[in-house]
Amino acid sequence: MWKGSSEGSDRFEYLQTLVTEFQDTDSEEAKEQVLANLANFAYDPKNMEYLRELQVPDLFLDMLTEENENFVEFGMGGLCNLSMDPECRDIILQSSGISLVTNRLSSQREETVLSAITTLMNLSTPSSRSEITDPALLQCMLRFSLSESPRLRNLAAVFLQDCCTREQVAQAEQQMQGQQTAIGIPLPKDN
Amino acid sequence: MAACGGNSSGCWVSPEVYKHHEQRKVCISRPKYREGRAAKAVKVYTINLESHYLMVQGVPAIGVMTELIQLCALYGAVEEYRPLDEYPAEEFTEVYLVKFQKLTSARAAKRHMDEKSFYGGVLHVCYVPEYESVEDTRLKLLDRRRYIMRTARNKARQREDKDGGTEEPLTSNTATTSEKIISQQDQRLHNYNIEDSSNSNHYSDFPLLPLPPYEHHYLVHKNQHGTMHTEDKMGTLYNAIIDTKQRPAQKSSSDREKSREHRPTPNQASAVRFIPRNTHLENRKRKMEDTVDHTCTELSGKNDHLIGPKLPEPPKLDMEDDSLNTTAMLIRNTMKQVGSVPDVKPVEKKMKPRRRI
């Protein structure tokens, strides 16, 4: 895929071509492919700077409100990859990323939900902590921690152990008992 | 969800077959410039998908477990392995679970062993993160975050150095200054490595094996390991990149640095051609308002909104006619509104349509 600098094509230019194609094409399929490309490029920290410059964090965030589930999954995957980087994290936080990502915890696709949880963990900073530890969000994680899927269960457990205090979890648990039981609500499908 | 009944998780629960074990169809519709050397499916890799655990399918059932593990060990220390007897396998083949000590090893093993022939069979190797414990998952994420942080810090320092360098006119001495930067960088990386190995010395006493020569292909760039010391930990792949890529790219990147200083030049602006952010924001706002309109009937109160999976929506009927569909949707929405009113605490907004009815 990556032709390398030996052919003189610079990485930045290549990424820019991808972004341009993404915006110019009308084909959903091409968009999906390019989006997946960009999300995979976001895995490599070497590209973070270029991706920031091309406003790819915002591009990924925009995908979260799309109807096409592939767009959402790939965009969320890209955010999961990008948000590890402190500067990208700050950009995502500034673009009200937390609520956009939180909204997608209800996705039917397990991969999307997993990416969302990891992204939220990455977005946790002293100033965003209160938003990340919102009782409703913790209750959602508590439900995930009962999931049949080991990956979802584990990730939710890490979230509950690392991103909030025990008191907060206990409080969320208490609130959950007061409410109607949420056990019947289906968890994401692995499709 | 491919779930078995009940909560009984024990060793005799037969392993489940997840979607991500399957080999996805390769994508054949990519334009030339996005075509890689190897055919790949459209898929996004995140740290959640990766794992120290690999599942190897398609191992011929001729008693070659030792050989398989020896092959795996070429890519790094194998911590555990066992046959997955209950996992549905093709006839005359076996499935194995292999846990590597390090993620980089698992990554290398997957890359080099997947779709390779092995004693007459073709192996299919995939990550199986569902075998991780909570602690495994935590460590995996922590390692990744630490590695990204370290790279970001290095990058920032490199930029600082470069900014210092660009004060001088960027002409013939570019090459020499960048050389200097690289050597400083190497020095620093070296220091980092020393620091790191003292932090995680429980790995460092393991004798490392050199990796087989790698091919360049898609997604490989994130972990190209050429030498012994780069195999050691995730962070060190930065080293490998400097050696191979950074040098030739140095000049062009410093040129860009220069052009970025007086941005936005018309040239740059037209080249990026990104839809301005505010239009996206508008779009998003509109969409969010739409969804709020649809879901506000479900949300009661302010604070106790439910995050996460919701009850499935009833399947949408297709009347095979646009007009009929629109009518059906209108009726459905009205019914939803009417039906939801008794449950919701009296809110002015919702009372209004009722009065009208």
TrEMBL record, chain A:
InterPro entries linked to this entry: ARMC7
Highest taxon, organism lineage: Eukaryota
Protein name: Armadillo repeat-containing protein 7
Organism: Solea senegalensis (Senegalese sole)
UniProtKB/TrEMBL annotation, chain B:
Compositionally biased residues, Basic and acidic residues: 253-264, 299-318
Biological processes annotated in GO: mRNA processing; RNA splicing
Compositional bias of kind Polar residues: 169-182
Segments of this protein annotated with the region Disordered: 153-182, 245-269, 299-320, 336-357
UniProt entry tagged with the keyword Transcription regulation: no
GO cellular component: nucleoplasm; spliceosomal complex
Described function: As a component of the minor spliceosome, involved in the splicing of U12-type introns in pre-mRNAs.
Family: Belongs to the RBM48 family.
Descriptive protein name: RNA-binding protein 48
